[in-house]
């Protein structure tokens, strides 16, 4: 059993770090806002003290900075907690939220709206997250169905089915792009990921699904620890490995779909963060899952600061920055686990 004091100390420290990083990220930008002014303005919003910001500065904070920072924390947390769930289910540290067709389905859904939604141009911006969400879930359902039919839902078969479905959906997306070259800029802008397109309405639209998926994954920590013993041992202890695997994969896929529907495709978060968390708190999933949720938010908010400031006033695609940092990290993990069999 995990030591409660030890676990809570890590969780409190991670929550404090997330809050601090969010304040720093909110202060970064062309408009001059200091962390102290931001905190005072937020406290004034709940009736504590007076805000030091004028009307324009307050509008920049509430309408531009805060939605982006909160979205970064939510997306990073969802991708990281989904990664922890996948890695627990498949007992493989290389498992990633973009397995099982989630990324391919989201990309295809967004591409279809961008290319064929011209008649609804006024609403197309709001339809892209919906289409990406539906595409991600559809891709996962297809991969799981194929994996179950081909091999009874075994981990290796599900992983291979996910790779196959992702490749197929990506090929369909590429084919559509070739017929509509004029839309490539908009498509790639979404595919490369970013947090600047969303707002409070987008966060509100995914909030119920994000809360449910994160809660299910956190509650599944004990069962993931039992799965780590092997299916036979877990079954002897009264656990149904197939049912647990289905619940966790569904929740992780829902979390991934929520994230990519508002941010586009942002890779490697689900591999990098859970691996760092296991280095910090051990392999007990009752610690790994909630810590991944918090530190995933910290990770992506920090990455977004880099993306916004390196070539200011321009902005780097968020997915490109995470890939630049995550790809070498992936190779390190791959080398460390080269003798592991799925």
TrEMBL record:
<keyword id="KW-0813">Transport</keyword>
<feature type="transmembrane region" description="Helical">
    <location>
        <begin position="158"/>
        <end position="176"/>
    </location>
</feature>
<dbReference type="InterPro" id="IPR037294">
    <property type="entry name" value="ABC_BtuC-like"/>
</dbReference>
<keyword id="KW-0812">Transmembrane</keyword>
<keyword id="KW-0472">Membrane</keyword>
<dbReference type="GO" id="GO:0033214">
    <property type="term" value="P:siderophore-iron import into cell"/>
</dbReference>
<feature type="transmembrane region" description="Helical">
    <location>
        <begin position="98"/>
        <end position="117"/>
    </location>
</feature>
<keyword id="KW-0732">Signal</keyword>
<keyword id="KW-1133">Transmembrane helix</keyword>
<protein>
    <submittedName>
        <fullName>Iron complex transport system permease protein</fullName>
    </submittedName>
</protein>
<feature type="signal peptide">
    <location>
        <begin position="1"/>
        <end position="30"/>
    </location>
</feature>
<dbReference type="InterPro" id="IPR000522">
    <property type="entry name" value="ABC_transptr_permease_BtuC"/>
</dbReference>
<keyword id="KW-1003">Cell membrane</keyword>
<feature type="transmembrane region" description="Helical">
    <location>
        <begin position="316"/>
        <end position="334"/>
    </location>
</feature>
<feature type="transmembrane region" description="Helical">
    <location>
        <begin position="206"/>
        <end position="224"/>
    </location>
</feature>
<feature type="transmembrane region" description="Helical">
    <location>
        <begin position="244"/>
        <end position="277"/>
    </location>
</feature>
<feature type="transmembrane region" description="Helical">
    <location>
        <begin position="289"/>
        <end position="310"/>
    </location>
</feature>
<dbReference type="GO" id="GO:0005886">
    <property type="term" value="C:plasma membrane"/>
</dbReference>
<feature type="transmembrane region" description="Helical">
    <location>
        <begin position="124"/>
        <end position="146"/>
    </location>
</feature>
<dbReference type="GO" id="GO:0022857">
    <property type="term" value="F:transmembrane transporter activity"/>
</dbReference>
<comment type="similarity">
    <text>Belongs to the binding-protein-dependent transport system permease family. FecCD subfamily.</text>
</comment>
<dbReference type="Pfam" id="PF01032">
    <property type="entry name" value="FecCD"/>
</dbReference>
């Amino acid at each position: 059993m995990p030591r409660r004091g030890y676990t809570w100390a890590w969780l409190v420290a991670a929550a404090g770090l997330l809050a601090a990083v969010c304040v720093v990220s909110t202060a970064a930008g062309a408009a001059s806002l200091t962390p102290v002014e931001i905190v005072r303005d937020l406290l004034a919003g709940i009736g504590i003290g007076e805000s030091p910001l004028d009307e324009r500065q307050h509008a920049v904070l509430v309408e531009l900075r805060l939605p982006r920072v909160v979205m970064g924390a939510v997306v990073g947390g969802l991708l990281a907690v989904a990664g922890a769930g996948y890695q627990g289910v498949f007992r493989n540290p290389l498992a990633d939220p973009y397995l099982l067709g989630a990324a391919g389905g989201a990309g295809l859904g967004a591409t279809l709206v961008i290319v064929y939604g011209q008649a609804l141009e006024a609403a197309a911006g709001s339809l892209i997250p919906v289409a990406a969400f539906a595409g991600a879930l559809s891709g996962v359902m297809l991969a799981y169905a194929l994996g179950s039919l081909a091999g009874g839902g075994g981990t290796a078969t599900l992983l291979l089915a996910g790779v196959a479905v992702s490749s197929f959906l990506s090929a369909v997306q590429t084919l559509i792009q070739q017929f509509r070259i004029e839309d490539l800029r908009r498509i790639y802008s979404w595919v490369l990921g970013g947090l600047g397109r969303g707002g409070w309405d987008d966060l509100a639209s995914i909030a119920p699904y994000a809360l449910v998926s994160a809660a299910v994954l956190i509650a599944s920590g004990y069962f993931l620890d039992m799965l780590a013993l092997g299916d036979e041992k877990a079954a002897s202890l009264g656990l149904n490995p197939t049912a647990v695997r289905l619940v966790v994969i569904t929740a992780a896929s829902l979390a991934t779909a929520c994230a990519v529907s508002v941010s586009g495709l942002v890779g490697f978060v689900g591999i990098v963060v859970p691996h760092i968390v296991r280095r910090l708190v051990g392999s007990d999933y009752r610690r790994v899952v909630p810590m991944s949720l918090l530190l995933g938010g910290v990770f992506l908010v920090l990455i977004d600061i880099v993306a916004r400031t390196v070539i200011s006033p321009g902005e780097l695609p968020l997915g490109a920055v995470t890939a630049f940092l995550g790809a070498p990290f992936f190779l390190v993990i791959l080398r460390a686990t080269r003798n592991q069999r799925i």
